[in-house]
Amino acid sequence: MAEWFDIAAESDCPPGSSIERVAGDRMVALANVDGVYHAIDGLCPHQGGPLGTGTLCGAILTCPWHGWQFDVTSGRHRYSQTVRQQVFEVRCEAGRVLVRPLQPPTTAMGVPPA
User: Fold this and answer.
1) Which one-letter DSSP state was computed for residue 102?
2) Is residue 65 left, alpha or beta, with left meaning phi > 0 and alpha meaning psi from -120 to 50?
3) What is the pTM of this model?
4) Residue 54 in contact with residue 61, Cβ under 8 Å?
């Protein structure tokens, strides 16, 4: 079973916002959608842009570099069914946000490694 990583205080990511954090050796985009936290791989598969510093509109997180968009609840690219970010399980304890990988890591284009 994967390890839990403490990545932020709940107050670091208010509703309607996203932040960038490190969990072990992974960059994570943490988003707060109406008071519910979601976390996906924080590196955009297009050119490695910092997803956590992008714009969150509802559950859609837009990469600040080139506008790629991802649903933070599922990790899916908004327009391409074949592109998907790794999703992290999220829980809150004593005002802290913890994450752990929910699915196996993927390659840069969202495909599980062979």
Assistant:
1) S
2) alpha
3) 0.88
4) yes
Place of tokens 């936290």: 37
**Two structure tokens written together for 53:** 């510093």
- CATH code of 5-101, in short, is 2.102.10.10
| Residues 63-74: tens digit of each pLDDT | 999 999 999 999
Q: What beta strand segments (E) does the chain contain?
A: 5-9, 18-23, 26-33, 36-41, 55-57, 60-62, 69-71, 87-93, 96-101
100: which 2 tokens? 């752990």
Residue type for position 49? G
Convert the pLDDT of each residue in 3-41 to its tens digit. 999 999 999 999 999 999 999 999 999 999 999 999 999
Task: Find where tokens 């969990």 sit.
Answer: 23
CB 75 within 8 A of CB 86: yes
